[in-house]
Amino acid sequence: MQPTIRHDWRKSEVLHFFGLPFNDLLFIAHSAHRRHFNPNEVQMSTLLSIKTGGCAEDCGYCPQSAHFNAGVKAEKLMGEEEVLAEARKARTAGASRFCMGAAWRSPKDRDLEKVGHMIESVKALGLETCATLGMLTGEQAQRLKASGLDYYNHNLDTSEEFYGNIITTRTYQDRLDTLAHVREAGMRVCCGCIVGMGESLDDRAELLRTLANLPEHPESVPINLLVQVKGTKLQDAPPIDTFDFIRTVAVARILMPASFVRLSAGREEMSEETQALCFFAGANSIFYGEKLLTTANPEADKDRAMFGKLGLHTSRGGTPQASAQEIAQSLTRLAG
Length: 336
Ligand code: SAM
Ligand code: DTB
Ligand code: SF4
Hints:
Elements: H1 11-19, H2 22-36, E1 41-51, H3 80-93, E2 97-102, H4 109-124, E3 128-132, H5 138-146, E4 151-153, H6 160-166, H7 172-184, E5 188-190, E6 193-195, H8 201-212, E7 220-225, H9 242-255, E8 260-263, H10 272-281, E9 285-287, H11 300-310, E10 313-315, H12 324-335
Parallel strand pairs: 1-2, 1-9, 1-10, 2-3, 3-4, 4-5, 6-7, 7-8, 8-9
Helix pairs in contact: 1-8, 2-9, 2-12, 3-4, 4-5, 5-7, 8-9, 9-10
The protein binds S-adenosylmethionine (SAM), 6-(5-methyl-2-OXO-imidazolidin-4-yl)-hexanoic acid and iron/sulfur cluster (SF4).
């Protein structure tokens, strides 16, 4: 019998899920979801760009790269009081986690000190904290952990094979090394992808397999749909078929059944029906609030109205619904 939480997924198995009839795939994914989580609960994180633009990296999707002219002005690191004011607003609006993003290749130690103080203050508001600051050394990860940081976001974004088509200023191994430092420091990992960058189905399968075969599954798996920003290298990337996007969410849910799968960037362009299918397929987390880092996200009122229509409510944590054995039995039966 297959154990529920596996770290030995084969490419052929992942491709098998992607190739299933849509209804079968969604049924399997939803069954896995329902056994690990309350299917009507969605966790909400709010993002803040604490250091915007002027980044040395050349990530082809990113409006904050200094290699492109996407109209994003380079700014200094925000002050702690300003960050705290935004965190209070996020808490009042109903977010449970506050994510601070910086357009750095990697943080300087003196900047990390400042971010460490911000984390302590945001945590004191009763919010979970997440930061995404670029590559970290082992010591830097320890420093963030000592500040009380709950999650570190560091996306693999795509397959190792496709990575060089999107980014040339760092390697896939650099990303994996930072993820290992974060784990060694004892923080929870938020690591996911972007789809719609011109990658193949094979690349999507390989990315999800890489995530699921890490020594521990990331607790949070953001699935971003590329926001095509004018001026970036990927401004004219061929749009992905909506059903292929939903399939990616479903396969992430099946491979990492106990992780939060976040319907991340790209919701502004998505219909409510598409989002509803993503929630059915196993997405149970969103970015909440009208801005991502530099681009638009749906207005909070609009999301609240959608949640009302779908009978969804916000969660602070997942509730397993069945034993590991039941999940394994059902997955084996359904996939067989
Ligand atoms: N500089 C840090 C890094 O790269 O890890 C943190 C900030 S970076 C903006 C965080 C993530 O945002 C990227 O890994 C990527 O997944 C996502 N992202 C950036 N631009 C995007 C876009 N146009 N559409 C979708 N996701 C995007
Ligand atoms: C993640 O996976 N997506 C977020 C967050 N982690 C940092 C960022 C999305 C950025 C979208 C483009 C922008 O707003 O600049
Ligand atoms: Fe810099 Fe992060 Fe944007 Fe890449 S994704 S250019 S590292 S801010």
